[in-house]
Write a structure and sequence with these properties.
53% of the residues lie in helices and 5% in strands. It contains four helices and two strands.
Length: 112
């Protein structure tokens, strides 16, 4: 039994109903190993009767470490109800809200 399957089994034993795998340095899945490790983690959750509603990353922009590999691997897995257009739309809406907030704050402070 692999590490991810042991981890999923331990989560079930502890009473967890879900798991969110993390892809970043020092986490469940290292970015340099995402192509190898994420598909196995995705498979391990339902095999242990766990929901796996998300993958957590430290992607903050297009220059983040291995962003293409992480997203391509994520999109290539059967991981919940991933809807890229919905996710992108929601993300852009939140980004627009934040930019507006900070722009207004800078203007009010006389910094623009």
């Amino acid at each position: 039994m692999g590490r991810r399957r042991r981890g999923a089994a331990a989560a079930v034993e502890d009473g967890c109903k879900a798991v969110a795998w993390t892809v970043r340095g020092g986490a469940h899945i290292l970015p340099q190993n995402v192509e190898r490790d994420l598909p196995g983690a995705v498979d391990a959750a339902p095999e242990a009767s766990l929901e796996a509603p998300m993958v957590i990353t430290n992607i903050v922009d297009a220059k983040s470490e291995r962003v293409d590999a992480i997203l391509d691997t994520r999109l290539g897995t059967d991981y919940g109800t991933w809807n890229l257009e919905m996710q992108k739309s929601e993300w852009l809406s939140l980004l627009k809200r934040d930019v507006t907030f900070y722009s207004d704050a800078l203007r009010e402070a006389g910094l623009t």
